[in-house]
Design brief:
Elements (H helix, E strand, L loop, with lengths): L2 E6 L9 H14 L4 E6 L12 E6 L2 E6 L4 H10 L2 E5 L2 H5 L8 E6 L5 H11 L5 E6 L5 H5 L6 E2 L18 E4 L8 H8 L9 E5 L8 E5 L3 H8 L4 E4 L9 H8 L3 E5 L2 H6 L6 E2 L4 H10 L5 H12 L4 H14 L1
Parallel strand pairs: 1-2, 1-5, 5-6, 6-7, 7-8, 9-10, 9-12, 10-11, 12-13, 13-14
Antiparallel strand pairs: 3-4
Length: 329
């Protein structure tokens, strides 16, 4: 007899991000195993929700597209179908959707939140009692999980490890991120105009068409084309300045043959604990110095160390942890 798993998130799939990426990965994995049935309840994934309104809410130095008030009957029908409901980012579903309490829940926390917000959440969550297990994707998201459950479980963000990849031979710098100040695209533009790096190629994957003369821009490419873009570069620059709880693009970059250079955000350091290469956050001179020093380094050796680190996030191994929770909740 199969286990019916409902994956739930308030985030819209029409504005793609890290949470949506993980929901898709889990859905694909469960769909390929006959002992599970899986459905997704989310705007942009559940067709019957297309007429519902999505709100663009400024949050955590970004703008999140969130479904605040889904079709209630449809929601209850989906939940009634499920044996286990796996909620990614629980605040909106718990507080606004008012999830029924007669189900088994897994709540996965993705965001890194400040102390004031987590204290408020802790007060709010005390009003709700669910038969549930809390998980969190990174050390930076742990305080968020603790606001709901005193004994949350760490299950990191996951990726399908490419066993056949090697360090790219083509030389170029890559930026990935929405046009938000915290993503620090301005540093990438500044770097592309710097005389010290005129021999480098610059590529950017972003959500808006730009016209920066030294940068080849790809606006919202498909996942398949995104892999082709990774093949054009060998160094990925994670220039983010704040409000990052994990950094799934760091894993994607290494998994596609790119060496990751990042700002020294603690979340980025934690992603590659034994192999991170960082510059001082929001310090352009520091970034230039780190990149210049790479000219005398064995980049293939450095990449291999990062590739070893990302094996911690292997989809097959980490899904075993979720399956154990699905089976025993």
């Amino acid at each position: 007899m199969s286990i019916k798993v409902l994956l739930v998130t308030p985030y819209s799939f029409q504005k793609y991000g890290g949470v949506q990426n993980q929901v898709n990965l889990i859905e694909d994995y469960l769909s390929s195993h006959e002992e599970f049935e899986v459905k997704v309840f989310a705007y942009g994934k559940t067709k019957s929700l297309d007429s519902n309104k999505v709100f663009n809410i400024p949050f955590n130095s970004s703008v999140s597209s969130v479904l605040l008030f889904p079709n209630r009957k449809l929601l209850l029908d989906y939940i009634d179908w499920a044996d286990v409901v796996h909620v990614h980012e629980p605040f909106v579903p718990i507080f606004f959707w008012k999830l029924p309490k007669n189900k088994k829940y897994i709540f996965t926390h993705h965001a890194s939140l400040g102390r004031i917000i987590t204290n408020i959440l802790s007060i709010v969550y005390k009003s709700f009692r669910y038969r549930s297990i809390s998980t969190y994707v990174s050390k930076s998201a742990e305080s968020n999980a603790l606001s709901l459950n005193s004994e949350p479980v760490l299950i990191p963000n996951m990726i399908k490890i490419n066993p056949n990849i090697s360090f790219n031979k083509r030389q170029g710098y890559l930026f990935i991120g929405r046009q938000e100040s915290r993503k620090n695209y301005n540093f990438f533009v500044k770097l592309s105009n710097h005389k010290q790096f005129t021999n480098k190629l610059f590529y950017a994957i972003t959500n808006k068409d730009k016209s920066d003369k030294n940068i080849t821009i790809y606006e919202n490419p498909t996942d398949e084309f995104k892999i082709e873009i990774f093949g054009k570069t060998n160094i990925y620059l994670a220039l983010n300045t704040k409000s990052e709880s994990f950094g799934i693009t760091l894993l994607e970059a290494v998994n596609n043959g790119n060496l990751v250079i990042s700002s020294d955000l603690i979340s980025f350091i934690n992603v590659l604990p034994n192999s991170h290469i960082v510059y001082k956050n929001n310090n352009f001179d520091s970034l230039c110095n780190v990149l210049t020093k790479l000219d005398s380094e064995d980049l293939n050796l450095l990449w291999n160390k990062q590739y070893k680190d990302i094996r911690e996030y292997d989809l097959e191994e980490n899904m075993k942890k979720f399956i154990l929770l699905y089976s025993n909740l």
